[in-house]
Amino acid sequence: MTKTIDSIVKKEKDIVKKVYNKNQPLFPMLEKIKLYTSRTGVLHGIRKIRAHGDQTATIETHCGQTIEVRDSKNGRVSRWLRNRWLVEPCAKCKIPAWKLEKYSTTRFVKKRSR
Ligand SMILES: [Zn+2]
């Protein structure tokens, strides 16, 4: 079942601490939040990300998986991260609570350019 990170992190209020531009490329976003949602909805912690040009990157997760990712603002990974959807956090990655909490207080919005 897909849910958002908010149903996993316990907190009292719906606080928003960090706001990112929704239309930014995927890789810098992954670099910042250091989280990756897999095809099956498992949220992994990113140990390393290596970009090969601006089209593809290799992500190394804390649980030891190596995943090839294609940059696409509207691709699955971007969409899942932006909506903060997940099925469950990876048990092996042991993502610290503060990181999940931070993710739950992060929003991706459409920013107007001036
Ligand atoms: Zn993992």
Q: What keywords describe this structure?
A:
single chain; 114 residues; alpha/beta; two-stranded antiparallel sheet; 3 helices; globular; binds zinc ion
How many helices? The count is 3
Largest sheet composition: 5 strands, mixed
The SSE string, one letter per element, is EEHEEEEHEEHE
Question: Portion of residues in helices?
Answer: 10-25%
Mean pLDDT: 91
Total strand segments = 9
What sort of overall outline do the alpha carbons produce when their principal axes are compared? globular
Q: How many distinct domains?
A: 1
Counting helices, strands and paired strands, the structural category is alpha/beta
What fraction of the residues are assigned to beta strands by DSSP?
A: 25-35%
From the N-terminal CA to the C-terminal CA, the straight-line distance is 40 Å
* Small-molecule binders: zinc ion
The Cα radius of gyration reads 14 Å
Q: Which regions contain 5 or more consecutive residues with pLDDT less than 50? A: none
Walk me through this protein's architecture.
The protein is globular. It has one domain (3-109). It is built from 3 helices and 9 strands, in the order ββαββββαββαβ. Strands 3, 4, 5, 6 and 8 form a 5-stranded mixed β-sheet that branches. Strands 1-7 form a two-stranded antiparallel sheet. A two-stranded parallel sheet has the order 2-9. The termini are far apart. The chain is of the alpha/beta class and 114 residues long. Helices cover 21% and strands 34% of the residues. Zinc ion binds at residues 44, 61-63, 90, 92-93.
